[in-house]
């Protein structure tokens, strides 16, 4: 398959001179085909650290070569780049640790919420009990009011009696 694609590209490249006048994008097409062919089949070599990290599916820390060659001053550029990689690695480990802490914090928060909810439910039960007590107090108050009404009736009766006594008294006076 690789050879077939390479032969096709070579045929296109041979025909390049004859087609150059008619199609200006022909060269770009041929070069793109060559680039695509080799970029798909390219083999990369990794140092041992990167190879192990890839195998274990761990994060790989590598600085862009332009940063090392153009962005950092020589002669400290390589040492600075290695230090930066170490800092990034440490931060990645801390981040992982922090994420685990966050999960524990969330579990703690969940526990707190559960306790708070239980407390709220107990408070509601207590409130319900208080309401029942208040209702009983209201019933008691109602009973007291009935007693008061009876007392008022009794008082009214007493007043009537007093009035009749007054009438009797008047009667007595008039006699």
From TrEMBL:
Instruction: Cite the GO molecular-function annotations of the record.
Output: hydrolase activity, acting on glycosyl bonds; lyase activity; metal ion binding
Query: What are the entry keywords?
Result: Coiled coil, Glycosidase, Hydrolase, Lyase, Manganese, Metal-binding
Q: Which domain of life is it from?
A: Eukaryota
Query: Which SUPFAM superfamilies does the UniProt entry name for this protein?
Result: Indigoidine synthase A-like
- Coiled coil, from the record: 89-169
Q: What is this protein called?
A: Uncharacterized protein
Q: Which organism is it from?
A: Trichogramma kaykai
